[in-house]
Write a structure and sequence with these properties.
The complex is a heterodimer of chains A (about 290) and B (about 190).
Chain A: H1 2-11, H2 16-36, H3 41-72, H4 74-113, E1 123-130, E2 139-142, E3 155-157, E4 162-169, E5 174-178, E6 185-190, E7 196-203, E8 207-214, E9 224-227, E10 239-248, E11 254-261, E12 270-274, H5 278-291
Antiparallel strand pairs in A: 1-2, 1-12, 2-5, 3-4, 3-12, 4-5, 6-7, 6-9, 7-8, 8-11, 9-10, 10-11
Chain B: H1 35-49, H2 62-73, H3 80-94, H4 100-119, H5 124-150, H6 157-167, H7 169-176, H8 178-190
The chains are: A alpha+beta (about 290), B mainly alpha (about 190).
């Protein structure tokens, strides 16, 4: 046996060190290329298409168990959901009369200003496929991709408001960065006084912040931030966050506002991806990928 | 008829009786593990790695464990190429940068290859102690590179993950050698 192992040593091709060096250099080159450019996107898409059936297969038992358990306590679920819906209906009835009145007024004002009515956005409902275990970013993978019309850059919303933005699409899956991810910035407006700001993610676990505000800014704790529609990507008026604290830093002279998102990316499984038309998306596509 | 003939004598001595044939080496024959158990275990741990339980960041990397195990015991079947390719697959699943996990797997595989002669002398528990630093270093280098690229530090949970991975080594040794041991036992029984 000892003889065999010595013979094997000589029979092998390049030595382990050489192969190690090749793979290490290759891996580091891939890391840097992937971080700096979009060259590897086609390869990633191809691999993820191959992976998809295996991911589905691996998750199938869990999905089945979920389905069965939800089926068994569906009665309780339906009852509680019914109560919640009834409560919501009463609340919404008030709101809707108010909204109808406002939209009529708005329409009239728009006509007066000769501004074209904003077309309501088409959208695709998606479900969370899995949450990638990635310490560097806060992303979600959805179960629909470019085959369903989703493109990188499209906003993702839920019933609470803006959840995030699609950053990567493969034929059957898509990846969204949450608004709390440091790569996503959203143009917003303060609902109370119309002040325009931009929120960024990346502070703490689930917070967004608006930076470099002048120290005399009119921003209070409890203010609701909604999308301003500037940039065209996010339709105007979607709730984004509620201001939690406004900190004045006397050394720099700027203030920082920190807010909690109003959407619940961690709570539900279904979200809507707004199908923003291509011309709006294209200029931003480059920027998005470069940030990756 | 001597019980223990010299090796050089064997071909010279001619005897009609089968009982004169003595084994030249009485130590049990070491079976190699079959391709099914090697590739099956790697495929299974890879599938399990696609499940969401790894969101708990100190979760042990069982794919790395299986790979390292077979690189130690079946170096002819499992090589650096496989470590690299499986790493790329995990990178795509985790939506990581390309090559991060691949680098960790290749480094760990190389560490095991370098230490293999020494490791094979010891029991699994002693092997485990050798493997803790190997896994920590193999995970540290990609973490540092990614921290440098993304400009933020992810914390230290990956160290715990590497240690937990190594802690599972005796279990892997027990489970992955189960069919192998059964064969060995059968051989012992027949002799």
């Amino acid at each position: 046996m000892q003889e065999q192992s010595t013979i094997r040593l000589f029979k092998r091709g390049p030595s382990a060190e050489v192969r190690l060096a090749v793979f290490v250099v290759l891996a580091i080159a891939l890391l840097i290329t992937d971080a700096r450019s979009t060259l590897l996107e086609p390869a990633r898409q191809a691999i993820s298409v191959v992976l998809y059936p295996f991911q589905r297969a691996a998750m199938a038992p869990g999905d089945l168990a979920n389905y069965l358990s939800s089926w068994t306590d569906s009665a309780a679920l339906v009852r509680s959901e019914k109560e919640a819906l009834q409560r919501q209906r009463i609340e919404l009835a008030q709101l809707s009369t108010h909204a109808a009145q406002l939209s009529a007024e708005n329409e009239q004002l728009r006509r007066l200003l000769q501004v074209a009515d904003r077309v309501s956005q088409p959208s695709v409902a998606v479900q969370v496929f899995y949450e990638p275990p990635n310490a560097f970013s806060r992303h979600l993978i959805f179960d629909k991709g470019s085959a369903h019309g989703i493109r990188a850059g499209m906003p993702v919303i839920d019933d609470g408001g803006v959840v995030g933005q699609i950053v990567r699409v493969t034929p059957y899956t898509s990846e969204a960065a949450l608004i709390t991810d440091d790569k996503v910035s959203v143009p917003v407006q303060v609902l109370r006084n119309g002040l325009r700001l931009i929120t960024f993610g990346g502070v703490g676990a689930s917070r967004v912040e608006a930076r470099y505000l002048t120290s005399d800014i009119d921003l209070e704790v409890g203010d609701v931030l909604v999308t301003s529609g500037i940039g065209g990507l996010f339709p105007a008026g979607l709730p984004v966050a509620r201001v939690e604290s406004v900190e004045h830093d006397s050394s720099t002279g700027f203030a920082v506002a920190v807010g909690t998102p109003l959407s619940y990316p961690e709570r539900y499984r279904h979200f809507l991806v707004l199908l923003v038309p291509e011309p709006v998306l294209n200029p931003d596509n480059e920027g998005l990928h470069n940030e990756q | 008829m001597s019980n223990k003939p010299e090796r050089s004598n064997l071909p010279v001595k001619r005897s009609s009786s089968l009982s004169s044939l003595q084994p030249i080496d009485t130590s049990p024959f070491k079976n190699t593990s079959g391709p099914w158990i090697v590739w099956g275990s790697i495929f299974l741990t890879w599938l399990v790695s696609l499940l969401p339980w790894r969101q708990w960041s100190p979760a042990p990397d069982i794919l790395l464990l299986t790979l390292a195990f077979w690189i130690l015991h079946e170096p002819r079947r499992v090589s650096l190429v496989w470590a690299f390719s499986l790493g790329i697959l995990i990178d795509v699943h985790d939506a990581h940068l390309f090559g991060g996990q691949a680098l960790a797997y290749v480094l760990a595989a190389y560490g095991v290859m370098v230490l293999s002669r020494r490791l094979l002398l010891f029991e699994p528990v002693v092997q485990l102690m050798h493997l803790i630093p190997v896994f920590i270093v193999a995970n540290a280098i990609p973490v540092v590179i990614q921290a440098w690229i993304s400009g933020e530090w992810v914390g230290w949970t990956w160290v715990l993950s590497a240690v937990l991975t190594a802690m599972l080594w005796p279990l892997a040794d027990f489970l992955l050698f189960l069919p192998h041991r059964r064969l060995d036992d059968a051989d012992d029984g027949s002799s």
